[in-house]
Fold this sequence. Notes:
single chain; six-stranded mixed sheet; 5 helices; RibonucZ/Hydroxyglut_hydro; hydrolase
Amino acid sequence: MDIRTLPLGILETNCYILNNGTGVLIIDPSGEADVIEQEIDDIGLPVEAILLTHAHFDHIGALQETARTYAVDTWIGAEEEDWLADPDKNGSGKYADMGIEPDSADVEVKILEEGPMEVGSFKFEVFHTPGHSPGSMSFRFTDFVVSGDVLFSGGIGRTDLYMSNHIDLINSIREKLYVMDGDTDVYPGHGPATTIREEKATNPFVRG
């Protein structure tokens, strides 16, 4: 699997472009739709779906344009289905002093369910990992997991946001992510990739 990491938007949120040799998955089209489109044009394979780890504004900045361009299904956790169109819930309404415009996306979505999933030519497993947000989802492929803003290299997601919960976040990391094989690569919503083993051994917020 080829994984391309694109830090996009004002917060340099990681958008992931997954290429399995047959098709492409977009995870978190965070911003700069033209950059995403250029990357996919370079790959030269059809986009099969868009997956959202969660609906915070910095993960959906290019969602509406990207969904319109590729006319594929967008998948999201049920708890945040209505966040896409609500700046107060997706957080964009709170940062006008930073020059961030209230953001909303008018996109029809399909609802993710925890467990094995098949989309086009991709097979993976969906984990409900709430805490940073109530509908946060992580996606595990053969040897890596995309964790959104749940687990970072040396860090964890914020829990001072709308409907976030610190205890839920810690439980999600311990019960859903840290039980994965130590060699599993972790691709977070911000910053560099890490591994489950590294985080269990050194993460100052949640030790294994």
